[in-house]
Amino acid sequence: MLRVLIVDDSVFIRTVLSDLLKRAPEIEVIGTACNGVEALPMIAELKPDVVTLDVQMPQMDGIETLRQIKHLSYRPKILVLSTLTSRDAELTYKALRLGADDFMLKPRNISKMRGIENELTAKVKQLISIPEPQKCAPNTDIPAETIILIGASAGGPPMLDQIFSNMKGHQNAAFVITQHMPEGFTAALAERLNRICPMPVKETESGDILNNGNVYLSKGGYHTVISRHVDELGRQGGQITLTKSAPVHAVRPAVDITFSSAAKVFGKNCFSVILSGMGNDAGEGALAIKNAGGNNIAVREEDCLVYGMARSAIKRDCIDRVIPLNRIHREIMKHIAKKE
């Protein structure tokens, strides 16, 4: 049994989180607290496996609670729960830098809280199961000839955890992830993935050169556009430009923008993976990759929270294979090995 302590100043949120977690047969909620003052002695006494921690609370907020947990002889895994505000985005990133293990976004409308059940239970279970990675040194000066593109929306972050925590060592490709997420929170997601992935992970910036063995996460609020780049040695590769152009499919970053621009630069050396997500984003981009001679795979429907994005590509007949989530990392590494 995974033992969970819930820390949140809202009685309603504590009740809902407790109800949702109790539905999972392998999870036991061992207590609740309204702030860090209440939580710290409970952590020391009850020794939970996981603590869900609100960021903004009276008396002792999530940030100060994390600072104090460092002084305890026992340290649980910490899952920070954040609301969709710019202030919470900054605090969430700070929380991860202070030692929180992962984060999750709470809906703006608290009446929709019960809709996070699958993601919440997946996050709690993964916090216990993901091992510490063996970090490898990237070849930072070698332009990638192969690009691995990943698109995701709702339900995507736990999938990214599973894929990148299972990657092995240095890979002779550059990875670009486009995950629909509010502006400000992609920095925290990059921080999180950087901890569990053997390769370095960073949020995209304009001017980034796509080099082997590096993972780039599309910055929230901007489209990540990939253009051709030739370095001083004449080596050709890709470069990232961020743009605030109009949203596509009502989102920014849009997977279609990143996939389609990458297809023009990398052609047959594009390999895309479409994960869980609602809406039609990714279909046009996957078709562009297919038309350029590249390959696309999608995760199977039963592994997804929502299957809209993958279905939009399947309807265009541009998906080469549909793969279970637990095999995605192997498919990626197999594809890279074929290109070497």
Could you describe the 3D structure shown?
By secondary structure, the chain is α/β, with parallel strands linked by helices. It has two domains: 128 residues, Rossmann fold; 193 residues, Rossmann fold (3-Layer(aba) Sandwich), CATH 3.40.50.180. The protein is 34% helix and 22% strand. The protein is built from eleven helices and 14 strands. Strands 8-9-7-6-12-13-14 form a seven-stranded parallel β-sheet, with helices on both faces. It has a five-stranded parallel β-sheet with strand order 2-1-3-4-5, sandwiched between helices. β10 and β11 form a beta hairpin. α4 packs parallel to α7, α8 packs parallel to α9 and α9 runs parallel beside α10. The protein is globular. The N and C termini lie far apart (44 Å). The mean pLDDT is 94.
How far is it from the N-terminal to the C-terminal residue, by CA? 44 Å
Which CATH class of the largest domain is shown?
Answer: Alpha Beta
Main beta-sheet annotation: 7 strands, parallel
Number of helical regions: 11
CATH homologous superfamily classification of the largest domain: Methylesterase CheB, C-terminal domain
Give the helices and strands, then pairings:
Elements: E1 2-7, H1 11-22, E2 27-33, H2 36-46, E3 50-54, H3 62-69, E4 77-82, H4 86-97, E5 102-105, H5 117-129, E6 147-152, H6 156-165, E7 174-179, H7 186-196, E8 201-203, E9 214-217, E10 223-230, E11 236-243, H8 255-266, E12 270-274, H9 283-291, E13 295-299, H10 308-314, E14 321-323, H11 328-339
Parallel strand pairs: 1-2, 1-3, 3-4, 4-5, 6-7, 6-12, 7-9, 8-9, 12-13, 13-14
Antiparallel strand pairs: 10-11
Helix pairs in contact: 2-3, 4-7, 8-9, 9-10
